[in-house]
Specification:
alpha/beta; binds S-adenosyl-L-homocysteine; TIM Barrel; 12 strands; 12 helices; DNA polymerase, domain 1; binds iron/sulfur cluster; ten-stranded mixed sheet
Length: 360
């Protein structure tokens, strides 16, 4: 929520904007004008919508909030991955990552600029390796707070974003309604106009929500954070697996693939001595082949205060080659930005700790 309990104007769908202008006694075309100010001209207040009658602007401001994300910190430079720490209206902190030339994953060409957005403040799922879950869950992000991450980064950098991944802080499928609202705004021609195939949602495995997403019309992409090819391994590092085990998760994936006629991506972070054995690679390869899914191997990014690390480059390559023996399209991220590409949730954690130690 924003400071007050008013809904934010940037959480509305187009038909809701139309209903709103009608209710306020204005002609329908005002909805188009408002959308244009919000998503094309990108003003930051109702006053700036100068082709709307003054009284109407005042009414809008009375009824709706006009949120803005404040940049607290930026890490990285133009040629590298950049991380943005934002403060929301209620002082919560979230982070968003801009990846300049993403690997040709998630339907993107390598010259595309990708933004990795957050969907919640914190995360309730508590995966053992992840910084976002370390301090628990605070709240869901509102649709406007999701859309505004993209708008704020485009404004700050002057760069056009053409690929969006929901892989920042939080579990997108645990905030599915708001995430879908945001996605419709991001995708719509009256909104940000990003093609559905350039939008990827990532989940740690909320099986019932995967089925719900499969019933959505939009052809957005789905990535599953697998990180283990047996219940034994997944149970160790992902508490969600005790609720929806591998069999339940894979059945939901099957449903998704057959409903959507679309390939999934399995994400698999490689953690030394946890999930990096040849046996896991073999099983992962088999699972991916059965579902016709792609595999994206990601060497683990160390999180301050957590005991995990990435396997050696040789071990990573061996794992990749075993997965590929199953004729599966698999890639291994060999990124350089390791220093700042610290996994999502970390910049926030670090800033909070600095603030805490400064006041104590
Ligand atoms: N909650 C969703 C999306 C956010 S996490 C999910 O879990 O899929 C996005 C991805 O980052 C997930 O695949 C997650 O497992 C991964 N991740 C989390 N911590 C990481 C770390 N320290 N190093 C590398 N990847 C990490
Ligand atoms: Fe939450 Fe995803 Fe991190 Fe797990 S990996 S704690 S689901 S953000």
């Amino acid at each position: 929520m924003t400071q007050d309990t008013k809904a934010d104007i940037k959480s509305l769908q187009f038909d809701e904007l139309e209903k709103l202008v009608e209710r306020l006694g204005e002609p329908r075309y005002r909805a188009r004008q408002i959308a244009d100010w919000l998503y094309q001209k990108r003003v930051q207040s109702f006053e700036e919508m100068t082709d709307l009658p003054g009284g109407f602007r005042v009414r809008l401001a009375e009824e709706f909030a006009f949120g803005k994300l404040n940049i607290v910190r930026v890490l990285g430079s133009r040629d590298t991955t950049r991380k943005f720490l934002f403060r929301l209206a209620d002082e919560s902190l979230i982070e968003t990552v801009l990846i300049p030339a993403s690997p040709a994953l998630y339907g993107s060409r390598s010259d595309r600029r990708t933004v990795c957005v957050s969907t919640q403040v914190g995360c309730a799922y508590g995966c053992k390796f992840c910084a976002s879950g370390l301090e628990g869950f605070s709240r869901n992000l509102q649709p406007n707070e999701i859309v505004d991450q993209i708008i704020a980064i485009e404004r700050e950098t002057g760069e056009k974003i053409d690929n969006i991944v929901f892989m920042g802080m939080g579990e997108p499928l645990a905030n599915l309604d708001n995430v879908m609202r945001a996605i419709r705004i991001i995708n719509a021609p009256w909104g940000l106009g990003t093609g559905a195939r350039h939008i990827t949602v990532s989940t740690s495995g909320l099986a019932p929500q995967i089925r719900k997403l499969a019933d959505e019309k939009l052809q957005i992409r789905l990535a599953i954070s697998l990180h283990g090819a047996t219940d034994e391994v997944r149970n160790q590092i992902m508490p969600i697996n005790r609720r929806y085990n591998l069999e339940t998760l894979l059945a939901a994936c099957d449903y998704y693939v057959s409903n959507k006629k679309q390939r999934l991506t399995f994400e698999y972070i490689l953690i030394e001595n946890v999930n990096d054995t040849p046996e896991q690679a073999k099983r992962l390869g088999r699972i991916a082949r059965r579902l016709g899914a792609k595999v994206n191997l990601i060497p683990y990014n160390t999180v301050h205060g957590l005991p995990w690390s990435r396997p050696s480059p040789e071990q990573q390559e061996l794992f990749l080659s075993i997965v590929r023996q199953n004729e599966v399209a698999a890639t291994l991220r060999r990124e350089k930005g390791h220093d700042i590409d610290a996994a999502c949730g970390q910049l926030r954690l670090q800033t909070k700790r600095e603030v805490q130690s400064a006041v104590s």
